[in-house]
Amino acid sequence: MRPTYQTQADSDNEDAIAQRFATAWGCDFVSMPQFFPVDTLFVQNGSPKAWGEIKRLHRTLSVWKSTRLDLKKVAVVQTMANVTGLPFLFCVQYNDCYAWTKIEGQYEVTTGGRTDRGDKHDIVVSVKIPLDKWKILK
């Protein structure tokens, strides 16, 4: 069984990022349980509006031509979006901005991941979300 790397501080940071998006969009959010396929559910007046994957990336948005997201997560949550009719939003705090994109359609596939933990399972198949698909949160 793989180790769990997410700490309470990581979860608290995700909640703070989700709150920033929810406030800007005039809605609330519900954090999903650990190991649920997605981090949050955005709700408005008690009604579900969108699934949200929340990340903090310690780089600027435009340092690379794309941002990666785990293919397995994309496949599972796109299925959830299709079943529920709720969009799948990828919401990220970068060093220079908060940005988001709606995950839909097809993407270029790549492999990679972090190597600093010595965990071979940190290298995953992911999709590349191009820079032109991102919207800056106002």
> How large, in whole angstroms, is the Cα Rg?
15 Å
* SSE order, one letter for each helix or strand: HEEEEHEEEEE
Into which percent range does the helicity of residues fall?
10-25%
* Total count of helical runs of at least 4 residues: 2
What fraction strand? 35-45%
Main beta-sheet annotation: 6 strands, mixed
Strand order of the largest sheet: 1-2-3-5-6-9
Shape: globular
Q: Give the terminus-to-terminus CA distance.
A: 41 Å
Structural class by secondary-structure content: alpha+beta
pLDDT average, as an integer? 92
What's the number of extended β-strand segments?
A: 9
Low-confidence stretches: none
Topology overview:
Elements: H1 8-25, E1 28-31, E2 40-44, E3 47-56, E4 66-70, H2 71-84, E5 88-93, E6 98-102, E7 108-113, E8 123-130, E9 135-136
Parallel strand pairs: 3-5
Antiparallel strand pairs: 1-2, 2-3, 4-8, 5-6, 6-9, 7-8
In words, what does this structure look like?
There is one protein chain. The protein has helices at 8-25, 71-84, and strands at 28-31, 40-44, 47-56, 66-70, 88-93, 98-102, 108-113, 123-130, 135-136. The chain has two helices and nine strands; from the N terminus they run H-E-E-E-E-H-E-E-E-E-E. The longest helix has 18 residues, at 8-25. It has a six-stranded mixed beta sheet with strand order 1-2-3-5-6-9. By secondary structure, it is an alpha+beta fold. The model has no long low-confidence stretch (mean pLDDT 92).
